[in-house]
Amino acid sequence: MKKQLISTLVIGALVFSTQAAATQSVELEQTAAAESSNNEELIGLTSGIVLGAVVGGPVGAIIGAFTGTLVGKSVGDDDAIKTQQAMLDEKEQQLVALNQQNQSLVELSDQYEQAQQQLTSLKMAQEQKLTELALGLNVQFKTGSSTIEPHFQSQLNDIAYAMSLSPELTLDLTGYADRRGDGDYNQALSEQRVAEVKSYLVAQGVDEARLHKQAFGDSSPLMAEQSFENDFFDRRVTLKLQNQEGSLAAISAK
């Protein structure tokens, strides 16, 4: 638009100068004084227009160059801002991802700590249960019977539970009978009592390979003197919990 305006001014000035020259030629023939006056005015006007056009051109170019520089700088600054904003967005996303990872690590650490506490509690419960078993399991059989009474079934349940907590444990089962009756019968009865105890533990989930049994009939009484009370305690199956370090507990099932 500015270039068109400058061109128009220059062309107009040239046309106007040509017309002024033609008019000057006619007026010289009419009056010298009037011609001189008119020529000075026309020349001054034409010169002013041409000079304005000539001056306007470089100024317009300077303004255009300055304006172009400003526009280019503005565009460059806008691109730089966009690039910086993109980098900021990327960094924010990285920070969010790192924060999420850190949060996950904190949660995993908390879960590990809770698992450690639960494991410690289970170990303490296991040790307490083994101590209780070592101190006082007392299962008894009736005369001539290999049936496990309900009260002693619950105690055998405790043994099965303790073994489930400690896979390294094994159990030795040894059966006995009192001295009343035939020796062969008492031997068979002690073997049957051991078999019943073993079968019950297997039914509670104990691996049969972890159970070792033997029977001695009436050959190993607890007391030298035979009596009704002593016979009561001789009707038993001894259970010994074992680990790699040896016997943990000796329990009599009578």
From TrEMBL:
<keyword id="KW-0175">Coiled coil</keyword>
<feature type="coiled-coil region">
    <location>
        <begin position="81"/>
        <end position="132"/>
    </location>
</feature>
<keyword id="KW-0472">Membrane</keyword>
<dbReference type="Pfam" id="PF13441">
    <property type="entry name" value="Gly-zipper_YMGG"/>
</dbReference>
<dbReference type="InterPro" id="IPR006665">
    <property type="entry name" value="OmpA-like"/>
</dbReference>
<protein>
    <submittedName>
        <fullName>Sortase-associated OmpA-like protein PdsO</fullName>
    </submittedName>
</protein>
<dbReference type="InterPro" id="IPR050330">
    <property type="entry name" value="Bact_OuterMem_StrucFunc"/>
</dbReference>
<dbReference type="Pfam" id="PF00691">
    <property type="entry name" value="OmpA"/>
</dbReference>
<feature type="domain" description="OmpA-like">
    <location>
        <begin position="128"/>
        <end position="245"/>
    </location>
</feature>
<feature type="signal peptide">
    <location>
        <begin position="1"/>
        <end position="22"/>
    </location>
</feature>
<dbReference type="InterPro" id="IPR022511">
    <property type="entry name" value="PdsO"/>
</dbReference>
<dbReference type="InterPro" id="IPR036737">
    <property type="entry name" value="OmpA-like_sf"/>
</dbReference>
<keyword id="KW-0998">Cell outer membrane</keyword>
<keyword id="KW-0732">Signal</keyword>
<dbReference type="InterPro" id="IPR027367">
    <property type="entry name" value="Gly-zipper_YMGG"/>
</dbReference>
<dbReference type="InterPro" id="IPR006664">
    <property type="entry name" value="OMP_bac"/>
</dbReference>
<dbReference type="GO" id="GO:0009279">
    <property type="term" value="C:cell outer membrane"/>
</dbReference>
